[in-house]
Write a structure and sequence with these properties.
Order of helices and strands: HEHHHEH
Largest sheet: 2 strands, parallel
Number of helices: 5
Strand order of the largest sheet: 1-2
Strand content: under 5%
Radius of gyration: 30 Å
Shape: rod-shaped
Number of strands: 2
CATH topology: Protein Binding, DinI Protein, Chain A
Structural class: mainly alpha
Length: 171
Amino acid sequence: MTNYSRLIVLMMFMCVSSLVFAEQKIAFVNQAKLLQKAPQAESARTRLQKEFAKRDKDLVSLQKKIQSNSEKLQKDSAILSTAELNKLKRKITLLNRDLERDKAAFKEDLSIRQNEELIKLQKSIIESIQTVAVKEQYDLILSEGIVFASKRTDITDKILSQLKKQYQKGK
């Protein structure tokens, strides 16, 4: 085969491959935006807030109790007996221990619940992306790690709309 023949075959291959790529429908989705703006995300935040409100209030109350006892210690240390002074110091120490233990448990439980809600939300997002992809016949939808995506390929708002429909159905 001559160089000229090879060049013609190569050019034909390039034309055919560019036609194949031209027919593909590719899009981009900004998942971070969906995690912020989806109604399911707001609902999860509200649920968590309600679920942990009493424990948060209890922590604040315990902090106030410690502060009140610390102020009493500071103010009355000159007039309290040694036994009363030691008793008050011990009470403050025990309250501080309780506070630290309760704070740690609160943070751990909140973190676990946030992760559970995040997993549910991510599942809803994936389902919505797949629904739009099938409905609108996309060949490829990209997400994380994208350096640039034009507005024409960004279907994040379509997915957000799908998430809103999905949320309304679930209510």
